[in-house]
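To fix ideas, we close by showing one paired sequence and structure record:
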Amino acid sequence: MTTLKSTLQEDLNAAIKDRDELRSSTLRLTLAAITKEEVAGKEKRELSDDEVQKVIAKEAKKRREAAEAFGQGGRAEQAERERAEGVILDAYLPKQLGDDELRQIVAQAVEEARAGGAEGPRAMGAVMKIVNPKVAGRAEGGRVAAVVKQLLAG
C-alpha cells in the first residue's frame, strides 16, 4: 500500500530528475512540514494519510494567503509563484466542494441540528459538528463557517 507521503517523495524525485524547480521546491517544503509534524510530539511517529492531507491543506492555505498578500503588496511575480505552488499542492487534496454542494450539505446539517433542538447561537456549534466530518478536507473552515452563519441567519 502506497502512502500519500511516499507518493509525495516519489513525485519529488521525479521533479528533481525533470529539473522542475517549482514542483521540487514545493514538494520539498511540504515534505519538510510533514517531517516537522512527525517529530512534533513526545515521540517520533508516522503520520496517517489523513494527517498528511491536513499538513498539505495547511501548506496550500499558506500559499493562498501569501499570494493574496503579495498581490496586495504589488509583487505580482511572487504572488504568481505562490499561486502556482498552491495549484501543485491542490492536486494532492480531495476535490474541493463547489458552492452549491457546500450549501446543500450545510442546509441539511442546519435541519438536522434544529431537529436535535439546537437554536440560536448554540446552533452554530451543533451545525459545524455535523458538517465538519462531511466536508473534511474538501472545504476550508472559514468558508464553511460563512455558509453556516448565512443559512442560520435565514
In short: The mean pLDDT is 90. The first helix runs from residue 4 to 17. The CA atoms of residues 35 and 63 lie 19 Å apart.
